Amino acid sequence: MSAILIFMAGLAVIISWWMAHQRLTSKPWLEVGTASDTPGFDVSSIETAKIGLGVFLAVVGALFTLFISAYFMRMGLADWWAIPLPGLLWVNTGVLLVSSIALQWTKIRAQQDQIEAVRAGLLVSFVTAAGFLVGQVFAWRELVDAGYFLADNPANSFFYMITGMHGLHILGGLVALSRTSLKVWEGASAKKVRLSVELCAMYWHFMLLVWLILFALFAGWANDFVDICRQLLT
User: Fold this and answer.
1) Considering only CA atoms, which of 170, 23, 147, 179 is closest in space to residue 99?
2) What pLDDT digit, counting tens, does each position of 168-225 carry?
3) pLDDT of residue 35 exceeding 50
4) Is residue 181 included in any domain, yes or no?
5) Is 84 inside a domain boundary?
6) What residues make up the domain containing 151?
7) 80, 158, 160, 162 from 152: Cα distances, Å
8) Contacts of 129 (CB under 8 A, 6+ apart)
9) What are the φ/ψ torsions at residue 131 (nearest 5 degrees)?
10) Where does residue 203 fall: left (phi above 0), alpha (psi -120 to 50 degrees), or beta otherwise?
11) Within the chain, what is the greatest distance between any pair of CA atoms?
């Protein structure tokens, strides 16, 4: 239960920051200007696609929250043996971080209408994200070769299930990223793909955050953090 509260509190902070950043808290009736300067309903600072993606990410966050909660509850039973953390996961984490940074850089270049930079940034983001998935597969193989099979231990099952679910979401993001990249390579301007790039960056940052939480969970750091929070609450 503590894990759910902590994760949901963090998610609420992130959503609140995003809403404030998108000017949902603005008060247009207090803005000074002539009637002709007032933006119409068609000129909104928040694209519908961003709102839809935000709702989707909230659902994804709730899904992983349930996984994490189940992980904490199940690990307290006697038949739980902790699975060793493959060293390759450190490399994979760095690769996913590079992919997220590259997309943020691409987003800025798209806003500046630098199409060549956008093309290069999308390529780097795609290659590194695909590299992350390949690295995850090799991490799985490393564990299997060491004798940590799916059905041998609940800890093994949770690891494969949660990392597999995260990998599926990264794969889905790659589909959207490849479609955006294809538009750019077919000659679309930076202005036309700017929204798509922003959505991809938003998605990638969220999936990086989820992975960092999962990485801390598997490394055992999350247990210490939860214990500290429980001591503070009690």
Assistant:
1) 170
2) 999 999 999 999 999 999 999 988 999 999 999 999 999 999 999 999 999 887 555 5
3) no
4) yes
5) yes
6) 2-22+47-233
7) 10, 11, 12, 16
8) 96, 99, 170, 173, 174, 177, 204
9) -65, -35
10) alpha
11) 72
